[in-house]
Amino acid sequence: MHGHETPAATTEIDIDATPAEVWDALSTDDGLAAWLGDGASIDPTPGGAIHAPDPVTGVEREGTVETGSPDDGLRYRWWPTADPGSPSSVMIDIVPIETGTRVIVVERPELPLTAVVASAHASWGWRAAMWRIHLGYHIRA
Predict the structure, then answer these.
(1) 3-state class (DSSP) for residue 136
(2) Which residue stretches of the chain have pLDDT < 50?
(3) Where are the alpha helices (DSSP H) in the chain?
(4) What's the rounded Cα separation, in Å, for the pair 61 and 66?
(5) Which of 34, 38, 42, 95 has the fewest Cβ atoms nearer than 10 Å?
(6) How many degrees, rounded to 5, is the angle at CA 12 between CA 86 and CA 101?
(7) Chain-centre distance of CA 8, in angstroms?
(8) pTM score > 0.85 for this model?
(9) Hey, which residues does 90 pair with through a beta bridge?
(10) Nearest-CA neighbor of 17 among 115, 99, 123?
(11) Which residue range(s) make up the domain with 24?
(12) What is the count of structural domains for the chain?
């Protein structure tokens, strides 16, 4: 970063699913495609690639996984394929709760000039994407 933190978009939701089911939705190509859209793929190991359309704009994004495990959640950096100079960091925590799993997503743009706009935009994207997971699990439950 450039000496200070940019604003972050934070979203959390409780899902009627086990942490293992949520991890599968985050860490497999099929799960990620159901969550973020057709064509999404991920290698959840450190250094692995992630590719997905932005859940709001449909803009293709790609990135690199920093950490990924059912216990520690998922951390990655990603950027628009057409603009690799505009990355953001994403942290997804998977927290077991009595009624299922709490998923906490924090996305932080790494460029201060676009941080406010990108954070507001990312917040809506994550909310829409998280609702897709939430509704999918409620339908199957």
Answers:
(1) helix
(2) 1-2, 139-141
(3) 19-27, 29-36, 115-140
(4) 16
(5) 38
(6) 125
(7) 13
(8) no
(9) 76, 107
(10) 99
(11) 9-140
(12) 1
